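Recall the central idea of this unit: under ordinary conditions, the amino acid sequence of a chain determines the structure it adopts. In this exercise we apply that idea directly, starting from the sequence alone.
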Amino acid sequence: MIRGLLLALIVSASWWSAPALAISDAIPGLPDQIPGHELPLIQEHRYTMRGRVRPLLAFWVSRDDVGSASIRWRGNESAAAYELIMGSDPSRSPRQLNRWGYLAEEVRGDQSLVLGLMSKSDEQSLDEVEAGFKQISLTHPLETIRGHVTAHAAYSLVSPIQPSGDWTYRDVNTAIDLLFAGSARGPIQEIARPGGTRPGFLTSVDELVQRTVQAHKRGQSLSPGSLSYVYGRRLYVMQMRQVVLLPRFELDGRTYQRVLRARFEARRQDSRRVSQFELIYGTSGSLSGVPILISYQPKWWLQIELHLQG
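Accordingly, the structure predicted from this sequence is:
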């Protein structure tokens, strides 16, 4: 699903000082604005999306430029924030597939705020996607999450909102306005945060990526690792299963020197079901820790790649 790929798009940030976390007055304090939007912008990268679908088990159908993504990361010496938007373009994607998501997270010490919107994707086959597209009503609900992680607990509100049309990733600002207008309602969930649990998926992937980047810079051996983290109302485990150095990597006519290729797995602590994805990321300069290519297969019939633009 697109949620897994969204959470895979993580890069590192610097740390400088900034205002306190922007939370509402209500306890437990869910975000009432985009987390980290007031922090200084450090870097931004854009990606093109490529997709492959398999109408039958025998072959794949590939298509380039079926959507796009962008990542912004902000920070100062006391806080970091990540903001990304990605989605398919139904005018270009196979079977007019319209799947998109938005994620923003602010991390300050052992606390974090998260805001997410994702289109629902329950189809089990390409035929089901096409059947859904042919329905008279072309409006599909969006899953939303607002969360606040403290030193000892995590609070979240997970609820759908109903757009007025079949919105794409280009309508993200309208969707956020709808969310903050009070369209997402429901009970606030609370879970305990065990010691050592990271305050978010983004923090966990970033930490594992930075471990390998720093090990490479010091000339040390590359060692996979694992972390536990909290996201919404669940506890998860993130594992870097394998990491290797690629002395040379070519993508879309560009050549990158000495990059790392890592395979990740994420799963709920109470489940054996695993989501897998791969990152190829830089080790030096402005691309240190920055994904160059992200690949993910959320369904047996769907593969997605994000390619860094020049």
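The first strand starts at residue 41 and ends at 56.
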